[in-house]
């Protein structure tokens, strides 16, 4: 079953190729940072040394019977402290390197930390802040355990400083929630500071359909980032999931990447990092029925909700109806402006129903309005170069042009997953 034709040419014609040699040269200077991370690895070594030093001293005192209960507790807290600082270091080393220098390509590694698939400078800041709060709690606890040897002055300041860490962590978590939700406007929502867009060094290659040979090859499964450390995001996630109008809850993790005959898992894994939402770019998933386009679109939407973005899901026909209704009520402009509150709109099923010139114009207005304001994630049964067949009238080509500018395009090809299940049931 191969309903979506689409020659390589068709896929290529819709891609845009901004090539800025100077930009690439500047971007290449990020490698200057690489040695810094190796320096931190050396610092990590210092902590390992310190840890075993402390541990040895503790064991010695226990063996020689000089260890009081308080001493043991303090010594253990000190060890915990060292481990926590070492954790913080590894987070900065791996997360920072991955964000600012180069993708490490740990995806699929069985020890890949969950947060790494979702790392950006925002997440990193929140993680660091929470790690620092953890360390400062241990310090504070040490002071209180050893309260007879701690001056009131030190206790007071220890508490004040700890509170300051908590407040700043809460502020950071808050900022990476609602601010990311609004697409990181104004450039201070960490996303936009992320200097390592995956397009980075692909050079002219990155004109290839679906951005083929990018960096390291991230593969499924891409774990959903756990965000227990960012309460501001967590609390709203369920509400956002409810409000998004997904037809079913589908997760990227449940997508069997081996089922499609042809499928760009790298691009999907990259989409899963949601940079396209932060960058307000579009994405198109195209392929025959039953190949999991809606599944992937929902999976990406779920992930966006969990990352703090508001999302709305509807089919192209439903979007057209919604806009027609708004226009009839004389509030099309307001409706479009209200949609700005959603960094990601999902437009499912382009292609099954043809749109007349009027509906095409409405959808064009949506695409044009979103252009560089927010992301659209579109699924269709044919390559975007052939979306013109679906949208009648003069708005069609303009719509396609806006839609695919800077868009990530994923082509899925293969047999219907529904059919596979039907035939295997039949065989049973
Ligand atoms: P499409 O939108 O491309 O027509 P769907 O996303 O609706 O296809 O997929 C049809 C059904 O098959 C859904 O229940 C979906 O979860 C499932 N499905 C499709 N492809 C896969 C896959 N590769 N792995 C797991 N489930 C899949
Ligand atoms: Mg579908």
Structural features:
single chain, cell membrane, alpha/beta, ATP-binding, 15 helices, Rossmann fold, ATP binding, binds adenosine-5'-diphosphate, transmembrane helix, AAA+_ATPase, 428 residues
Description:
The radius of gyration is 26 Å and the shape is elongated. It contains 15 helices and six strands. By secondary structure, the protein is of the alpha/beta class. Residues 293-294, 348-349 line the site of magnesium ion. Magnesium ion binds next to α10 and β4.
CA radius of gyration: 26 Å
Percentage of residues in helical conformation: 40-55%
Q: What would the principal axes of the Cα set say about the shape?
A: elongated
Counting H and I runs of at least 4 residues, what is the number of helices? 15
And the CATH topology of the largest domain?
Answer: Rossmann fold
Number of domains: 2
* Quaternary structure annotation: single chain
Strand proportion: 5-15%
Order of helices and strands: HHHHHHHEHHEHEHHEHEHEH
Strand ordering within the main sheet: 1-6-2-5-4-3
Bound molecules: adenosine-5'-diphosphate, magnesium ion
CATH class of the largest domain: Alpha Beta
Cα(first) to Cα(last) distance is 23 Å
- Class by alpha and beta content: alpha/beta
CATH architecture field of the largest domain: 3-Layer(aba) Sandwich
The count of DSSP E runs of length 2 or more, i.e. the number of strands, is 6
Region (Disordered): 183-240
Membrane topology: Multi-pass membrane protein
Subcellular location: Cell membrane
Protein name: UPF0114 protein ACH49_04540
